[in-house]
Amino acid sequence: MIAEIPFWQRKRLHEMTAKEWESLCDGCGKCCLAKLEDEDTGDVYYTELVCRYMEQETCQCSVYSERLQKVPACTVLTPDTLNDYHWLPYTCAYRTLAEGRALADWHPLRSGDPDTVHEAGVSVRNRVISEADVPEDDWEEHIIHWIL
């Protein structure tokens, strides 16, 4: 018996159902990091500061269904907006598939386990501080380079 080809290998991003699209998120939490943009160069710098609504142990949003009301600038990826987020990390499944690369072995869709992203050290678990604990004027002091 031939195994069915997984949806992420046989469908284009815009052909996926909402459930399939959502399942592409590996739960790393990197899109929830506060980012600073150099207005002159357009370069984006990640900080170790994470949205106040992220549950740091799970890297999940505690207000996911109402996140846009609470954080109007929250990242909302769709097939149509994906290219607007040029700062997505190389490991992001959305970027990975858009660039024609295969999902990593640690991705929950491949491993069947949502913890493999954390076990592989790809997530922000235990590496972040809530943005609520740091005045915005001090954010530059929290720029990180381990995301790359």
From TrEMBL:
InterPro entries: Puta_zinc/iron-chelating_dom, UCP006173. It comes from the Bacteria. NCBIfam families: PRK05170.1-5, PRK05170.2-5. Belongs to the UPF0260 family. This is UPF0260 protein MDG893_06304. It comes from Marinobacter algicola DG893.
